[in-house]
Amino acid sequence: MTSPQSTTRVIIVGAGPVGMVCALALSRRGIPVTVFESESAPVKDQRAATIHPSTLEMLDELGIVEKIREHCLVSSTYRFHDRPTGDLVAEFDLGRLKDEIRFPYVLQYEQYKLTASIAEEYANASDFDVRFSHTLIGLTETASGIEVEYTSPVGTERMAAAYVIGCDGGRSTVRKLAGIEFEGFTYPERFIKIATSFDFKTVKSNLSLRNYFSDPHEWANLFKVRGETPEGLWRVILPISHEEDDATALSAARVEERLQKFFPKTGAYHVEYVNVYGVNQRVAATFRKGRILLAGDSAHVNNPIGGMGMNGGIHDAINLAEKLPQVIRREAGDDLLDLYSRQRRHAAVNYIQAQTIANKRLLEERDPEVRRHNLDELRRTAENLDTARAYMRRAALFDSLRDAAAIT
After folding, report:
1. CB count, 10 Å around CB of 310?
2. Is 254 within 8 Å of 262 (Cβ atoms)?
3. What is the CATH number of the domain that holds 400?
4. How far apart (Å, rounded) are the C-alpha atoms in residues 364 and 265?
5. pTM of the predicted model, to two decimals?
6. What is the number of structural domains in the chain?
7. By three-state DSSP, how is residue 29 classified?
8. Which residue range is the domain that position 30 belongs to?
């Protein structure tokens, strides 16, 4: 085992998009990294897929955008619909920000593909080492480093590191071992995500690649991803009552019933995959405790309406990768890591949490008068150039980055 006094290596726990972007960004700054992933191989999880313009700017600095662009769907617009009436309420076009931002669009690119593209291109060199089937079980801080205990295919082992970064999801082992509270709440309802190859544009022509449907009884999100075929897949996200068990929700008959209610059509839907998941709004009490740092879902989780979770996590990773090398090289004191925690926790609480909670409330509002007012206000916001631009800058997390950077 390497002596902790002699290592500058950083261990990242979790080989998802946040962990892999953080590893790449640290590697580019000359910091050796080892990534531990408890799964035996990259997981093809069907979660986040939208990469916002602010995140694209960061990924472009790492040379990632040019490598993935041809494999993505490009979307400059997103639309809000009134599901009961079928009316289009508002359209926001990122093209209206083309004079302000480098990427006036989002890329629809599933997170497992982003992870795989980084791993294939850069990982498994000695200084960018990704290890699957490696599960963290213990952390012990020393005077000048941190000792990591983990299980691997050959048994229980230990490794010394300068710092450990937890990018291991909402149930983060790193966060739990550090004893950091995860503050917030769990929604009583769950969400169901259904992917189908059926092209919804054949029955509703006013769809964008990203759509939000307001409904007092069953709001919905609908967006398209590339999937594994040129035709792509449409993902539908709907709420599930806490009274409905998973087995019922996942049954073929119930899935078909939901899709037919969403868009009735002749013949059955071809369903590519379906999953049910609980949803939390939580933020870690701190993103730094000694030599342990948190980023992404380990530090904050939220509902998926607006596609902010993965993007906010990548913003964590880039912020941390700018600061940590300075501390390791003793160009700055470790209070710089406290600044990371303050900046990114501010962004998580005041932007990612606040915006995703507001997005859900907008879509699910039941009071007829409040609902009418909200949709009218959204319509007016989209129609006015200045308010539309302000709305899109906030939704794309540019405001969160600006405000976080101002924190000292």
Report:
1. 24
2. no
3. 3.50.50.60
4. 25
5. 0.95
6. 1
7. coil
8. 10-75+109-183+281-364+386-405
- Residue 154, domain member (yes or no): yes
- Spell out the per-residue pLDDT of the chain, length 408, in tens: 444 445 899 999 999 999 999 999 999 999 999 999 999 877 777 778 999 999 999 999 999 999 999 999 999 999 999 999 999 999 999 999 999 999 999 999 999 999 888 888 877 777 999 999 999 999 999 988 999 999 999 999 999 999 999 999 999 999 999 999 999 999 999 999 999 999 999 888 899 999 999 999 999 999 999 988 888 999 999 999 989 999 999 999 999 999 999 999 999 999 999 999 999 999 999 999 999 999 999 999 999 888 899 999 999 999 999 999 999 999 999 999 999 999 999 999 999 999 999 999 999 999 999 999 999 999 999 999 999 999 999 999 999 999 999 999
In whole angstroms, give the CA distance from residue 79 to residue 211: 5
Q: Which amino acid is at 107?
A: L
- E strand segments, 197-291: 210-214, 220-225, 233-240, 271-284, 288-289
Number of Cβ atoms within 10 Å of the Cβ of 252: 11
Any domain includes 26:
yes
Q: Closest Cα to residue 27, out of 43, 12, 5, 6?
A: 12
- Give buried/exposed letters for 192-218 (b at 16+ CB in 10 A, else e): bbbbbebebeeeeeebbbbbbbbbeeb
- For residue 159 the two structure tokens come to 């490794």
